[in-house]
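Contributing new complexes? Match this layout with zinc ion.
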Amino acid sequence: MRIELKREGGLAFFPGLSRPRGVDLGELPPDTAEAISRGVQEARFFEQPSTPGPASQRGADRTSYTVTIDDGGRRHSVQLVEPVEDPRLRALLELLKRAVKEHGGSAHAHQ
Amino acid sequence: MHGLPRHRHSIHCILPPYLARQIIQNGSPQQRARILRTLAIDNTFRAMRLMRSGMPRMARALIPGSMVVESQKQRTIYDMKNSEQFPGMVARIEGQGDTGDVAVNEAYTGLGATYDLYWEIFGRNSIDGNGMPLNAHVHYGTDYANAFWDGERMVFGDGDGEIFNRFTLAIDVIGHELAHGVTEYEGPLAYFLQAGALNESLSDVFGSLVKQRTLNQTAEQADWLIGAGLFTDEVEGKALRSMKEPGTAYDDDVLGKDPQPGHMRDFVRTWEDNGGVHINSGIPNRAFYLVATDLGGYAWERAGHIWYETLRDPRLKADSSFLSFARLTVIAAARLYGQGGEEEKAVRDAWNQVGVRISRAKAGEPIEAVGMPAEQQPVAH
Ligand SMILES: [Zn+2]
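Output block (do not edit by hand):
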């Protein structure tokens, strides 16, 4: 399973923080990889619409994350806008942010 | 886009101004208070308040002081205790003293300073112009490095401690978030492309004015930075943005280089960041800085009034371009301070310097005069 995370928005636009970052589950410590696999299942990631949550147009400076997961031929992207209401999606996003921060590289390095 | 009617019905629809004035002068205290609050959103009184704050003392003396409504500042600061589940616990309400929590206190003070700017300088009673309570939520999330407006409330993270400090630390950022509320209630500016960059710029402008007024700085003395102090020592940079020199706020290994342009020739075309709303805002930001420093003195006095009037102009559209906004600022300058005066010239020059050209022939023309009271219509040529 390969995961790509792209951050956008927030109070300022930082070019360095908005580059897509990717990580292969195989590169992660087994505990982390397992937690993510479980998180993907619990959040029903592959069944989520591409923009879950209320389609609220209000607000400003919200951060949004585009999560793309490749898993054995399946590929799905979901855009999550903070604050993420669904607790399972929120938990998954937290796991992914941490994994990408600690182990991730440029999203295109492995392609 | 905000689902609220732009023109709220109030008592002034049925009560002629002269009658309202009589009640203010002769009515019972309760009647007076009710009328004054209602009139706080009346156009006639808006014009009067602008006169009070923007005109010479002689003219100001003609307007009776009894028309000033009492402040309705009503702050509540919630402690999210590092969760993301709203609303969190009430940590400090209006009138309560220091709680010992620095983020709570900064949010309380920052919201107060922002409310005071709108109230004392622009005669605006809170976000909606009608005393809306101000709710801020601090300690949002874990290591959360952002602050945002969600359409109802302001939310502040503690920062990750590596790149960002806590977001309440910068009073202009608190002002920036509250100003998003004002823009949303006031105008229709979409959060996308040039209109979105104007929306962002208005938040930087009023956020910066909050900071400048708190520090009692003139336009010359101000640093014109947005979010100074938010970066930790690890970061090569001084702030999130510079209104004076867009593109120079940071240049860092992790964050990259500040992408803001300060001139139309460097305008960034992108689909990222809602079409570059935090990027191209550098252009109108610099225009405001140029007006304020050209006019000199306190930026909230004339430059601030011109921008505030422009935000309130019904001709400002959801998809307004920099050019149509710029035209409205010229019209506002002429309406507030006289046609052909130094204010109008300063505004025209400033836009010119950032590459937004307002032709002399067109600037005075009404772009569209929908729902404007007769005295506010631009003079026809
Ligand atoms: Zn903003």
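Reviewers usually confirm one structural detail per submission. For this one: Chain A has a mean pLDDT of 88.
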